[in-house]
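Appendix B, record 7
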Amino acid sequence: MKRLFFYLTTLILIGSCNPDNPQEMVVKSPDNNIGVKFLLENTKPYYEVTFQNKPVIEKSALGFKFKSQPNLDSNLQITNKITGSFDETWEQPWGEKRFVRNNYNEMIITLEEKTGLKRKMSLAFRVFNDGIGFRYEIPEQENIDSVIIMDELTEFHLAGNHNAWWIPAYRDNRYEYLYQKNPVNELDTVHTPLTMQTEDSLYIAIHEADLVNYSSMTLAGNKNNMLKCDLVPWMDGTKVKTMAPFKTPWRTIQIADDPGKLITSYLSLNLNEPNKLGDVSSWVKPSKYMGIWWGMHIGKYTFWESDQQGATTGNAKMYIDFASENNIPLLLIEGWNKGWTPQWYENAMHMFSFTDCADGFDLEEVCRYAKSKNVEIIGYHETGSNLINYLKQIDTALAMYKTLGIHNLKIGQVGSRLNMKEWHHGQFGVEYYRHVLLKAAENQMTVNFHEPIKGTGEWRTYPNMLMREGARGMEYDAWSEGNPPDHSTILPFTRMLAGPFDFTPGIFDVTIKERAHTKVHTTVAKQLAFYVVIYSPVQMLADLPENYKGNPAFKFLLDVPTDWEETRVINASIGNYVTIVRKDRNSGDWYLGSITDENERTFDVPLDFLEPGKNYIAEIYADGENADYEKNLLSVAISSLKLDNNSRITIKLARGGGQAIRFHPVN
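Structure tokens (predicted):
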């Protein structure tokens, strides 16, 4: 089912000129709440953004600084203005929401230098009900051929010194930092998405969409309510190397009067091109997987060849048997290939083989055995950020996987720099990740990038881009001080705005018997709730098989789907709590996940999202009596109730706890 409506409107309908200043142009969102004004002042371009006629972005500069050419940010005149509207509803092959409405009003301003090189540049603004996107378009022209961008001059002059949730840019661990909360004027340079809350509780998130053949954007503060686009540089200090014609990524500003609306905004997806891969249903399949992974992180196994080696044929068959018995369709095996050493994660040009098996492991036999048990192996490539080595082998490695019937691929780029030289999120990295994604698509393989470039909605265009890491996930709970309870209550409003996250939840042994003085800072019930709250189309059941066997809470992990018809946020407070409900795409079931920080909470939740006229059995997995993320992590209370959409349910969350519920229709 697809519906498409497209029409151009005249200038007077959605765009207007200020009669007192013909150098100003305004376009508003379809619901008229968000407005964007473009203005040319003293030949310099600026823009402003309002929400319900109140300023969100005050007058902010636009333009470029080039190498070997004058800046393109002044001496400009308007030569053309186009406005239009677009409204469609399109279907995702997988996702948090099946049908997505793409409805915006658009304004495109064409500028040309008055004198000198007479260079041309267009600015496109799209205004949605949930925010805006704008980008630069440099057409083919006589005086611009090859281009080296030294700086993009885009500013975001905020209307106040808002509180912001942020992680630092230009650090060796890429995006893997705990979020901090500070006023904007205390920020240095930070990654996007950057999420902010104003004094009057408006929520703003700045990010980008459709990042292709360009450097990713970080945001630099200057203590005057101002954030400036700071493009991640190449090793030589330049920012972007390209050719005209070119378009920049969309700079996006999500705007909401409730934090939950940030979660259910699909603005970034709508600013990407439609699916280029066609029908992918035969090989792109939302699912769940296990892995010989958590055992390596907690020290039960090693990644490398040793007496405790994790990737052995025997261990693989044991995991395959467990997965088969529980209808878990996928198994990830890290460390299966040659090149792993105890120093594999250190910054060095490690020489992995992507076709030769480690001692004690037979990939062909493991794949054969898995197929006999109706389980598929996930291919794994750890590059160690030695991309020279990886790209020499990638075609042979993918061909081997294809022969073995492998359709899913996890790729790691551990290291502080790619090839020990370039930032993961500079233009070099952007082009590398897109190259590998397209290679995978040619071989009908899905991709899970770890140590990735951030997501910018490209899975709409290439739906084999299933998930990625790009934040502190569960692995930090295995070998570090761990993630504090509020970390997961910040992620849905920050990292998750960049797309699906391979968070790797599902740890039942939260006390980590294998490693003394280390534990996961959640209750078990919160681990269950993660499968609803932290979205991924392929979710990991990360714990050891022996920790699942005989545990009644394991039923929820087997039941919960990973592909959704609809998503709604019931309540939300950034860094404190969030409750989300999602409807299964392939049944009438609804699922609820609710999590909290270090504070216990009680919520009264109406069930009006359930279908009227139907009865449901609520299968409830709650924090047990006296559950607590520090003192009583394991207690889970399982119960059931008969309910309908007129009912209400009380949710009690322990400190660092959560609750998961399956609502199953019974008539």
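Remarks on this record: The CA atoms of residues 168 and 190 lie 4 Å apart. The chain has a mean pLDDT of 95.
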